[in-house]
Write a structure and sequence with these properties.
The protein is built from 5 helices and 2 strands. It has 2 domains: 8-75, Arc Repressor Mutant, subunit A; 80-118. Helix content is 62%, strand content 7%. The chain has helices spanning 8-21, 34-41, 45-58, 75-101, 106-118; strands at residues 61-64, 68-71. It is mainly α and 122 residues long. This is GntR family transcriptional regulator.
Length: 122
C-alpha cells in the first residue's frame, strides 16, 4: 500500500525489507525485479530501481549478473539490528525520558511494560 508523504522508492525499499524481516524473503532468495515491483505498484521502473538500489547500497541485496537481485547473507540480521536501534531511539529513549520526568525508575517502567503485555490486544 502506497503512503502519501513518503517517497515511493523509500516505500518500495521498506516493503522489500519487511519481506526479509518477516521471513517471506529468505537469504539467497531472488528478490522481486524492478520491473516486477513497478508492475505490481503501477509505478515507473526507474522509481522501483531507485528503491532496490537503496537496498544494494545498504548490503541487503546483491546482483547476480544475468540472473537478478538476491537477498544477501546476513541481510535479515542487519535489518533487525537497524530496526532495534531505531526502536530504541524512537520509542524507548523518549519513554525513559518521560519516566524520569514523572519519577519512575527503570524497574517501574519494566513493570508497566510487563503489565501492558499481559493485557489482551485491542
Amino acid at each position: 500500500m502506497i503512503e502519501e508523504g513518503k517517497p515511493l522508492f523509500v516505500q518500495i525499499a521498506e516493503q522489500v525489507e519487511d519481506s526479509i524481516v518477516d521471513g517471506s524473503l529468505a537469504e539467497e532468495d531472488r528478490a522481486p525485479s524492478t520491473n516486477e515491483l513497478a508492475a505490481f505498484h503501477r509505478i515507473n521502473p526507474a522509481t522501483a530501481a531507485k528503491g532496490v538500489n537503496l537496498l544494494v547500497d545498504k548490503g541487503v541485496l546483491h546482483k547476480r549478473r544475468g540472473i537478478g537481485m538476491f537477498v544477501s547473507p546476513g541481510a535479515r540480521e542487519l535489518l533487525l539490528r537497524e530496526r532495534r536501534e531505531a526502536f530504541a531511539v524512537r520509542y524507548v529513549r523518549p519513554l525513559l525520558a518521560e519516566a524520569r520526568r514523572i519519577g519512575l525508575g527503570p524497574e517501574d517502567v519494566a513493570e508497566l511494560v510487563r503489565a501492558g503485555a499481559a493485557e489482551p490486544a485491542p
